[in-house]
Every structure is written in C-alpha cells, then in structure tokens.
Design goal:
Involved in transcription antitermination. Required for transcription of ribosomal RNA (rRNA) genes. Binds specifically to the boxA antiterminator sequence of the ribosomal RNA (rrn) operons. With 143 residues, the chain is an all-alpha fold. It contains seven helices and no strands. The mean pLDDT is 92.
Length: 143
C-alpha cells in the first residue's frame, strides 16, 4: 500500500523529472499533477515545499551527488536517478522531521518504481555514503 507521503514524493519526483527532462516549470507541472492526483492540504503543502526547495538548491544537491557518486557524472545519470538523489539528499540534509533511514528507504522505493534495474541499489549506495558522512561529521562535532 502506498503511504500518503510516498504518493506525495512520487508527485514531487514526477515534477522534478519533467522539469529536468523537458524544461517545464515545476510549479505548473505540480498543478497539473495535483489535478490528476488530488492530495490532502497537508500533502499539497509538503509537495510544493519539497519541490521548490529541491529546485532552488539543485546546484548544491548536484555537488553532493558529485561528491558521493564521483564515478558517475551527474549529467550522465538517468533523469530518474538524478532526481531521486536530489530529493533524498535534500530530505536527509534539510528535513529534520524525516529520519535518515526513512528518507533512504523512500528513495529506494521510488527508484524501484520508476528507475532502471540497478537504480535501487545505486541510490541506496549513494545515500548510505551521504548518511555515513553526515554521521561522521556529527561525531566530529561532538568530540
């Protein structure tokens, strides 16, 4: 069963994908997607906030992808993988109410649903590296 937040993340991913692939305005895409897939008011706020944040911080998120998936140029990643990573990295770094393991799991599920055969494994590996680096940084601050 698809959770409410998972469906919201699917809509965010679809908007990011369409913007990345076709250059369409993400907010316009969201409006269309939300007409086709009505959501609760809470989810609509979550969807717009998350989409706008990922779009706004795309360059910084891509730098994170370059750092943690250095063997894979961001521009050569599939549109789905690239946007799943952007979304998840944003959630891991900036969404304090989303546990890291949940953000990773949600990203892996998105990759399974929308990505290629090896997408889920790739996404999991990159995000595990991001998570470990954040944990290492937090531990260094505590010392």
């Amino acid at each position: 069963m698809t959770t409410s937040r998972r469906k919201a993340r699917e809509i965010v991913l679809q908007a990011l994908y369409e913007q990345d692939l076709a250059g369409h305005n993400a907010e316009d895409v969201l409006k269309r997607l939300l007409t086709e897939n009505p959501q609760t008011e809470e989810n609509v706020e979550f969807i717009f906030r998350l989409t706008n944040a990922v779009v706004k911080h795309k360059d910084l998120l891509d730098e994170n992808i370059r750092q943690f998936a250095s063997a894979w140029p961001v521009e050569q990643l599939s549109y789905i993988d690239r946007n799943v990573l952007r979304l998840a990295i944003f959630e891991i770094i900036h969404e304090n109410d989303v546990p890291v393991k949940v953000a990773i799991n949600e990203a892996v599920e998105l990759a399974k649903s929308f990505g290629g055969n090896s997408s889920a494994r790739f996404i999991n590996g990159v995000l595990s590296s991001v998570s470990k680096a954040l944990a290492d940084t937090a531990n260094q601050r505590e010392e």
